[in-house]
Design goal:
The complex is a heterodimer of chains A (about 210) and B (about 40).
Chain A lengths: L1 H4 L5 H18 L5 H13 L3 H13 L1 H9 L1 H7 L14 E5 L4 E6 L8 H4 L9 H9 L1 H7 L9 E6 L5 E5 L11 H5 L4 H5 L10
Parallel strand pairs in A: 1-4, 2-3
Helix pairs in contact in A: 4-5, 5-6, 8-9
Chain B lengths: L2 E6 L1 H5 L7 E8 L6 H5 L1
Antiparallel strand pairs in B: 1-2
Classes of the chains: A mainly alpha (about 210), B alpha+beta (about 40).
């Protein structure tokens, strides 16, 4: 698999050069300015981050009715929260939350490319776009999860969501033990990007 | 065009190489689908 889907050695340098050439051409033709690119990147690096996802998950953990609405009509539930403008914008047009339960674990992948719920989780991590990860996570998800530290009990059903069409899935992880007295804000600080993709659980807070 | 979330049993895709205990949901555009009754005929 690794050989079949491996990167050419100059992949990064080649992609970077292509992007630079494309940006230069668009600027030269007056389609964008240098500031346009910085503005878009800044937006997805500061406003559209996993902090939004963490707030959504923390609300779901503290409000069972919200948790129910979140999985039945994700965009409407997300709109209830005080989040940055544009949650239903680029790469967030069709948000779909899937919730972990004691018997079900969810994993979000994109086998074709790198579809990812940007407004909820920010820009996709590098490994998410890795061709080997994408192929293996579809065919042998349990083995892949175990390799990266999540050993699911055989009795747990693993649902793999391939977000290659138009929905942008994210996972509502299980609330860890030992968090009973915590505020919504404290809970949000525990939620990791990895847990909202489904490659990890939310760790219990340090005692 | 409508998009359907289709549940696949991994054994139907990968046969005996499939990993037990997992299911795969993929999004398929309507153009790629045929009604189940049509396929049975």
């Amino acid at each position: 698999v690794t050989v079949q889907f491996g990167y050419p050695e100059n992949r990064e340098a080649g992609s970077a050069a292509r992007v630079r050439a494309l940006e230069a051409l668009l600027i030269e033709k007056g389609v964008i300015t240098g500031a346009t690119v910085d503005k878009v990147l800044g937006y997805f690096e500061t406003d559209m981050t996993p902090l939004n996802g963490a707030k959504i998950v923390a609300r779901a953990w503290t409000d069972p009715e919200f948790a129910e609405r979140l999985v039945t009509d994700t965009p409407a539930a997300v709109a209830e929260l005080d989040l940055p403008v544009g949650m239903e914008g680029a790469e967030g047009e069709h948000l779909m939350a899937v919730a972990n339960t004691p018997g079900v674990h969810n994993l979000v992948i994109c086998t074709l490319c790198s579809c990812f719920p940007w407004p909820v989780l920010g820009l996709p991590p590098y490994w998410y776009k890795d061709p080997t990860f994408r192929a293996r996570a579809a065919r042998e998800p349990r083995v892949v999860l175990k390799e990266i530290g999540l050993d699911l009990d055989p009795s747990v059903e693993l649902r793999v969501w391939d977000s290659s069409g138009h929905s942008r899935w994210f996972v509502v992880p299980s609330r860890p033990a030992g968090t009973e007295g915590m505020s919504e804000e404290e809970l949000a600080a525990l939620v990791t990007t990895e847990s909202m993709i489904g490659i990890a659980e939310v760790p219990a807070p340090a005692a | 065009m409508p998009v359907y979330i289709v549940r696949f049993e991994p054994t139907e895709i990968w046969g005996e190489l499939a990993e037990p205990g997992a299911v795969l949901y993929g999004e398929i555009y309507q153009a790629y689908l045929t009604p189940a009754t049509e396929e049975q005929q």
